[in-house]
Amino acid sequence: MNILKYVIKLLFLGLFVLSIYYIFFIETEKYESQSIVMIKDLSEEQSSSALGSLLMAGTSSESMTDAMLLEVYVKSSDMFEILDKEFNFTEYYSGDDIDIFSRLSDSIALPFYSETYENLLLKYTNDLSVVYNEPSNTIKISFAHANAQISKNIVEKITEYSAEILNQFEKENTEVALSFLEKLERKKHALFISSLETLLVYQNKHNTIDPTIDIKSKSTILGGLESELIQKNVEYNSKSQYLNKSTAEMKLLERNISYIQKSIKEIRRKIAGGDGKAKLNVSLSDFSLLKSKLEFDKEVYMQTLIKLEETKVLVNQNRKNLIVVSHPRIADSYIYPNKIKDSVSVLIVLSFIYGILSLIIVIIKDHKD
C-alpha cells in the first residue's frame, strides 16, 4: 500500500512537472491587439417629420442594436471566410504556429481536434472578443494571435469590413422601407384623389363652391334687407301722419316694404331650407366633412411624399460611421496564456485529485485491517 502511495505521488508529480513544462515552454503564446470604436448614426442629426418618427426606430436602443448586430456579424462565418482569404486561418490553426496540443489536424480522429470548418470557426471565435460598453456607447474589438503584427492587421481589417457591412445592412433595411413607402405613397395618392373627386361631385351636384360662402353672402344680403326694411317702415309711418295712404308715394312705399319682406322671407327660407331641398346647414355639415377629409388625406399624402424623398436620399448615403476611438497597436508582450494563473490552477486540481485518491487508499487500508 505504501508502494502504491509512492507511485501515485510520483505520477502526480510527473503530471505537474509536465503541465508546468507545457505551460511555460510549449503552449502557444498569443499577442492581443485591440481597437475601440463607436457607431455614429448620421440620421440622428437630421430632422424627421411626424410620420418619419413613427417609421424610424427609437435612437435610445438603436446603438445597442447596432453593437449586437456588429458582434454577431464579426463572429459569423461570413467574416471568418473574408479574413481566412487574407490571413489563412486554416493553415494557421493547423500549422506549427500553434502548439501540438491545440492545433487542428486531419490525421486526428478526435472531434475537437479534427480540422473541420466548425472547429476552425470555433478557434477563430475563441481568439476574438467583442465587448459593448453601454455607458460610453463604445465597442472594444480584440483578437489574439501568435504573431503580434498579424493580430494588429486582423483587428484593422475587422474594423474596416464592419463599417462596410453596417452600411450594407442599413441600405438593405432602407430599401425595404423605400419599397413600403412607395406602396404607401400610391395608396395615399389614390385616397387623396378619391376625396378630391368626391368633393367636386358634391360641388357640381349642389351648384356651389363652398356653402359657407353662400351662407355668408346670404346673411350679408339678409342683414342689408332687414336694415332697409326698418328704414322704409320708419319712413312710411312718418309720412302717414301727413299724407293720405291712397297717394302714389304711400302706395309705392307699401309695395317696396312688401317686396323687401318677401325677399327677406325668401332668403330666410333658403337658409333654413325649403322646397323639399336639404337644409343649407345640413349641406354645410356635409361639405365640412368632405373638405376635412380632403385636407387630412392631402396632409398624409404630403407627409408620405416627404418621407419617401428622405428615404430615397438615405439609400445612396452611408448613414452609419464607425469612428475609431482607439487604433490597434502591436502588442509588446503576450497576453495568453496566463502562465502563473494556469500553473496555480493545475497545482490546485492535481492536489485535489491526489487528496481524493489518498483518502480512498486510506479507507481501503482501514477496511482491510
TrEMBL record:
One of its GO terms (cellular component) is plasma membrane. GO terms for molecular function: protein tyrosine kinase activity. This is Capsular polysaccharide export system inner membrane protein KpsE. The chain crosses the membrane at residues 6-25, 344-364. The keyword Membrane applies. The keyword Zinc does not apply. Keywords: Membrane, Transmembrane, Transmembrane helix. InterPro entries: Bact_polysacc_biosynth/exp.
